Sequence to fold (413 residues):
Amino acid sequence: MKKILLSLLALCSMTAMAKDYTNGFFILNEDWFGHNSSTVNFYSYDSESIDYRVYQAANHGLTLGNTTQFAELGHENIYFCSKQNYGQTGGRFIVADAKTLTKKYSIDEYAGGGDSRAFIAVNDDKGYVSTTQGVYVFDIKNMTMGDKIANSDAVETANMIKVADKVLVTARSKGFYVIDIATNKLLKTVEVPHLTSVFTIDGAPYAAVNSKGWGAPEPTDDEKFVKINPSTFDIDEEIKVPMASANTWFAWKNCAPAVDNETKTLYYAPYETATFISKYDVATSTFTKEFIKFDKGQKMYGSVVGFDAEKKNIVAMTFNDFSSQDYWLNIYNLNGEKVKQVKLKEHYWFPAMLLFAPTKVVTGVDRVEASKTVTGVHYVNLAGVQSEQPFAGINIKVTTYSDGSTTAVKVMQ
Fold:
């Protein structure tokens, strides 16, 4: 039995070394400012547990930058945007391999200045990085930072969406810019007071408007979602709501609402330190202020709410207080019922964003083995005892398939 256990542990070790970050989601985190760099962590649906500091683990001696508030997954990469670099180990903008998280590119300073805000890949070859001093062009194919887009630096810029051959960029105190992808030219500025973010619902462009910089909005505050014309980029419709998604320009965070494109439903925290998630059903024009009420004492930092389209889960990161060490991961179903809660490690300051990974990475081997089915699962504890049910503490979960092959992963119960 001891030999079996050692073999299983060795198999788990090899599996960890070749780990693909799939069937779960990344949790981007500011971490303990002044003590640590920002971090990215991974929650696995398979093990129902969190791997912490996965970028550091994949890149010995390297870190993310400081106050990392945005990440984007696409084109086989993850793009991390940090407000500041972190000493000599982590930059303002980092590109990592989406499967392994190994670093491909990093920049500490922009030639024209600015702190990173967000990133969008506009095609296979290039993307845009928004900063406090304009929008830069990034060459994805050659991994090089290009020039700043002319006239994009009048104000702080932040989150972006792609609409056909244009990109809309939020611009603080102005509204949003319209940039032509083919020429990298700023075509127009659409004035929308108190605009906080742009987003799409089933491909159609929208924006959120929230005039309250901190705290719950009053009935007299300007709260709405606006529908943007996809051809002219003027405002087609104003949708008045009691509470829109959070305004965080005072210390920018990604506050765009989580979107269920299938049902055209938005989920969001309407203000900093909200103790609930609001829901707006665009199809029926129905607003539900406290669709999800957090457990007592929990609140939101920014609007760290995500919608997992594959699992049909609403995910929220909460904390207890600014001086607290209590942080939680909460997973809810579409009815707003809690299905999972995980308390995170201490000193886990200020989660920033959720980024959902694909269910699996398809390879040639995957396609050959796609017909395999699971024929059995059992658990082995550290004493080598087997059971069909998991033991309390550390388990080795062994899965047997129809072709006789097995896999083993370490799980915590």
Notes: The helical segments are 2-17, 54-58, 364-368.
